[in-house]
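> @MW can you paste both from yesterday?
MW: sure, first one:
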Amino acid sequence: QVQLVESGGGLVQPGGSLRLSCAASGLTFGRYTMRWFRQAPGKERELVASITNMHLVTNYADSVKGRFTISRDNTRNTLYLQMNSLKPEDTAVYYCNAAGVNYWGQGTQVTVSS
């Protein structure tokens, strides 16, 4: 069965950095476009970034362009999200997802606050 386990969240001051990880199992990781989503309290889940499987083409939400970097290691079945210059509005629960797979893990909480 599919499992996606997010980690790396925490409390950070504005301007700080975090690196999220997503460990995947139960699927052929290298075949899927992978995505990071986030959901802030009272808001809908939004797509933050995506990366294709073979050519590693990346896309980002306008709100995170230039600050976040998505990457993947297909040999380790792991997805990453490097988050720099964090802002309070980045506070949310962050989830990884395999495109076309209806599975959501528990997510990892990111809180940006002074």
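MW: second:
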Amino acid sequence: HVQLVESGGGSVRPGESLRLSCTVSGLVVDDFDMGWFRQAPGKEREGVAAISPGSGRRYYGDSVKGRFTISQDNAKNTVYLQMSSLKVEDTAMYYCEKGSLRGQGTQVTVS
């Protein structure tokens, strides 16, 4: 049974930082591509970042390039999203995903 559990969201001011965590059980994060996406009320889902352990590549949405960093800790089987220089438009529910699987999400509010 695969489970993805996000945490680390909260309310911050523009320019501040947050680190989101996605703790995974039931699979080894180093064996699969993992990613983060976000969705704000009334808006389309937006891919934020992805990591491909096999190639070491990282992918970022245009709106977050240079501000967000995706990483993973294999010992903790956890994927992180470090978010810096947050903007009001980053406000959304953030989800960790692996293929069609996703967690319950964690809310990020920037105001």
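> thanks! The CA atoms of residues 51 and 58 lie 5 Å apart.
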